Amino acid sequence: QVQLVESGGGLVQAGGSLRPACAAAGRTFSNHSMAWVRLAPGKERDLVVAVDRSGGRARYADSVKGRFTISRDNAKHTVYLQMNNLKPEETAAYYCADRGLPSPFYIAYTGVGEYRYWGQGTQVTVSS
Questions:
Q1: Over the stretch 61-87, which tens digit does the pLDDT of each residue have?
Q2: How far apart are CA 34 and CA 37, in angstroms?
Q3: What is the layout of strands, in order, in the sheet containing 21-25?
Q4: 3-class secondary-structure state, position 64
Q5: How far apart are CA 88 and CA 54, in angstroms?
Q6: Residues 90-99: what's their mean pLDDT?
Q7: Are strands 3-7 and 21-25 parallel, antiparallel or unpaired?
């Protein structure tokens, strides 16, 4: 059984920043590709960013490039998402996703279907 727990969402004004975190329990993800995915009401899920097993390679959605940064601390079994200059349209539940398999270095899987385990989500609300 894998447990992923997100935290650090909240309510911010447009242009503000948040840094949600994803912590794992049950098994380590130190050699797994990880991702953050968001789901807004009435919209399809969007893969925000994927990162390889070490943090050495990350792939970002075009809409967040230059504003969001993923990092991972495998010793703490935690993945972070620094989100800067947030926009109201980015209001969504943000989910941590674990590929659940040993993954190569320098490959960050950008297909949502690659990910097996998901957290409960943390709500991010960006006001105007």
A1: 999 999 999 999 988 889 999 999 999
A2: 10
A3: 3-7, 21-25, 78-83, 68-73
A4: helix
A5: 31
A6: 97
A7: antiparallel
